Amino acid sequence: MRPDYTSYAEFPNDSKPMLCSIVINSLDSALIAEIIFFAEGLDACKVCPLVFIQLFKKWCYIFFDMQRSQIKYNITKVLNA
């Protein structure tokens, strides 16, 4: 059974290429990791790439958060000096 999509707004045409590249990049990363794991002989080559991509995204978020807190610290240090 399909839900009714009449209340949803359409994406503007200029934003579709941007979103498409994000989706394709994520899928390509999973496929590349799957091929590498398969070439190395891992039995769980379908599951491992998804786990590693999730870990990489969490690492990027943690790294970004650390950078942001360091910038805030530097700004307050300059303002208080």
Automatic annotation (TrEMBL):
This is Uncharacterized protein. It comes from Echinococcus granulosus (Hydatid tapeworm).
